[in-house]
């Protein structure tokens, strides 16, 4: 497995809480030419702005072991099914990625997608966490959408298994957070990594989307990592109690 696919921060504790970040980095591996401007990689289409920083703080300050993808989702999107048409995006939020037109899909899946998910699966099987946090961020406004800004500060996504998400939505709300229930996206359509590594294994999880303007700075990342760690601890207690 290429050492450039992923990185670990901290250790997962059996029965504890771990964090996963599919879009932590905007790095493009050597040898891949996407044909986009450098500033494009700094946008939300290149990676989940701030999400990696939140995970780092969850690991280093709150004892929540983290597993992060270390390549840009413009190279390959780890948070898709392997056969999804947008696995290697050609046009994303109105931005063309010329280098992905006719890209060797099989090679990218073999070199990046499969090693990442294999390693993530092995890690979770070894740790057997009591709660998985899938950390993402979303942009206040899509470049291709002229509508109003998204109002939510944080969103909880889920597919069939909502046992942890429902507790998290309530607890974030009690803290005065403007929280979205399957907003700004629906986990019924966009939940690939947790479908594979959590729902399929019966593991409780919270897929968390944080509005990226709130975590664009280290101060914001530290603040939201503390809030999420607090809520996650109480979610795990609630899930353990009511199961």
**SSE series:** EEHHEEEHEEHEHEH
Number of distinct helices: 6
Oligomer: single chain
Strand content: 15-25%
Order of strands across the main sheet: 1-3-2-6-9-7-8
Low-pLDDT stretches are none
Mean pLDDT: 94
- Whole-angstrom Rg: 17 Å
Shape summary: globular
Largest sheet: 7 strands, mixed
Query: Using DSSP, what is the number of strands?
Result: 9
End-to-end CA span: 37 Å
Percent of residues in helices: 25-40%
Structural class: alpha/beta
How would you describe this structure in keywords?
243 residues, alpha/beta, seven-stranded mixed sheet, 34% helix
What does the model show?
The chain has 243 residues and is α/β, with parallel strands linked by helices. Helices cover 34% and strands 16% of the residues. It is built from 6 helices and 9 strands, in the order ββααβββαββαβαβα. The strands form 2 sheets. Strands 1-3-2-6-9-7-8 form a 7-stranded mixed sheet, with helices on one face. Strands 4-5 form a two-stranded antiparallel sheet. 44% of the residues are buried.
Compose a concise summary of this entry.
34% of the residues lie in helices and 16% in strands. It has helices at 38-41, 51-62, 105-127, 163-174, 192-197, 218-242, and strands at residues 6-9, 17-21, 66-69, 91-92, 95-96, 131-138, 154-157, 179-181, 205-211.
List the helices and strands and how they pair.
Layout: E1 6-9, E2 17-21, H1 38-41, H2 51-62, E3 66-69, E4 91-92, E5 95-96, H3 105-127, E6 131-138, E7 154-157, H4 163-174, E8 179-181, H5 192-197, E9 205-211, H6 218-242
Parallel strand pairs: 2-3, 2-6, 6-9, 7-8
Antiparallel strand pairs: 1-3, 4-5, 7-9
